[in-house]
Amino acid sequence: MAKPTVVLLPVWGAGHFMPMIEAGKRLLRGSGGALSVTVLLMPAPTPEAAVDIAAQVKREEASGADDISFRHLPAVDMPTGHTGVEEWISRILRSHAPNVRAAIAGLDCPVAALVTDIFCTPALEVSRELGVPGYVYFPCSASMLALLLRSPGLDEEVAVEFEEMDGAIRIPGLPPVPPSALPSTMLDRKKSTYDWFVATGRGYMNATGFIVNTAAELEQSVID
Questions:
Q1: pLDDT at 191
Q2: 3-state secondary structure of 34
Q3: 188 catalytic, yes or no?
Q4: Which of 103, 113, 100, 137 is nearest to 36 (CA)?
Q5: What's the gap between Cα 79 and its chain centre?
Q6: Catalytic residue from among 52, 82, 96, 117
Q7: Planar angle of CA 151, 122, 106, nearest 5 degrees
Q8: Cross-strand partners of 5
Q9: Does residue 199 carry a pLDDT above 80?
């Protein structure tokens, strides 16, 4: 019987793609040969990104790693009329959801888990539909993840701009946070970046769990 595979879904930026590939390699080493890794490749939306990712994939394939394979997803129509880069990326990724579903369902080996990039929240819905555990590879801190997960609740509870509210913001595991300390993404609720931030936090509720760039010695209270 074919060994189970962990499916990785990175986006096309080199700063997203290569860290996830390296995490996949470490997962393979840690599994002692019990797992394989399948990387789903979405076509890059710009020629420059396409050349960059193609070169990196070629380099990985030339390394001769038997337990890591790459599968190219079909192209999708590029969205138009978007109000910001975050919305543009989100719409591209949502268009890829059926392709991700078909690729995972068509694998000829058991799927142990799907691990997605931080932007790929639509894929978490796919993992739930297929009964596959879905994880987010989160390269930021646990504190930032806590804020993202809290953001949909804050959006409902706070009626004014955060800088105009009285008192501090409560985020599980953190001391009271003054509104001025929030990332700029959250400080203008009329911008599409704010909508993306809250929608991402809401989408993360579909995740089985998170792979976070932190250590218990640094953020124990947040992890708890």
A1: 85
A2: coil
A3: no
A4: 113
A5: 20
A6: 117
A7: 155
A8: 36, 111
A9: yes
